[in-house]
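User: Can you fold this complex?
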Amino acid sequence: MATRKDYTKLDDVALVKCAQRSDMRAFEELVARHRDKVYARAFSMMRNEDEATDVSQEAWVKGWQRLKQFQGESSFVTWMTRIVINLCLDQLRKQKRQRAESIELLEEESGGVERQMPIVTTNPTEGLERSELRARIDRAMRQLSYEHRTVLILHEFEELEYKEIAKRMECSIGTVMSRLFYARRKMANLMASYKREEMS
Amino acid sequence: MNLELQLELQAYVDGELPARQTRRVEKLIAADPEARALVAELRATRSYLVGNEPEYSVPESREFYWSRIEREITRAEAAATGPTRQAAFHWRRWLAPLGGLAAALVLGLITLHSTDYAPLGSSLNHLAEVENASEHMGSFSFRSQAENMFVVWIYEKVEAVPTEPEPQVRPVLNDDMGVQ
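Assistant: Here's the predicted assembly.
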């Protein structure tokens, strides 16, 4: 008598191999395992639940369609995260084209505000529990423009080099460096202001 | 401190400077307290971000989330294979009538061609066996300019008995066509 395969007991490598042979139940298990991680990356970039859900689901569909190209050079979840990042960047570029360039954006590109910010010399994360720290990072990330947020995500969370970020964001390495610099300066000052709020 | 120097300090923090530039920047940091403070801030910001990415969960149940993915995959696969199958079906559907039409055209052209080169006196009435590729089918054409008429007669070949010589023209067909 044939027994039903227990996909939950297989590791990612085995599941990917099954899925590459068009086993959709194996792929479903991969989705179940990594859906939060892929969604989290989409949400951190889009900052909108509906858009993040749509983009992450689109990423899974693309993942299935391109699965035969996956050679296992990185982990499966890293590969999936790269797909969702590219989709988010496409989506954000479309949105940017649709909205008019604002004065605020021009200022951010030229670093009008961030360069004048005082250097933070105290530790704004001192005494914070990890969950509190994450909540504050989340709050600060929300305050950033999408260009600054994206470059921080790609550099600090995805650990990509300047060159790779420039390729993905379709801009020069110089632009990546200045965006990253302003994003960090703004982040440092926002975190310091939350600390001051807490103290007062 | 200008922007170029600030970006150089950041590249130093991120390990993106070549060795020679790194040594130069290290000397600068040692000599300039402002540069030192900026490097400390950049390092601190980096250190609390790395490994503390906010976590978010899909705001839908596993089944609901998967159902849409599955539906999209199925729809995309059907869309990718659908037109090919339909095209093949269309091609097969038109095969018989197009084949018939082509055969009639070929027979017509051959007949007209033979008429053009025939002796003048014999062009009023023609009866000829036309070559065709099918081993099961034979054909005759008949053209009368006086009557302004052109007929192609297609018939099924009866298998010849191997021991008997095959007749050139089957009399029964001549009778059928009313040709003397």
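Chain A touches chain B through 52 residues (CB under 8 Å). The radius of gyration of chain A is 20 Å.
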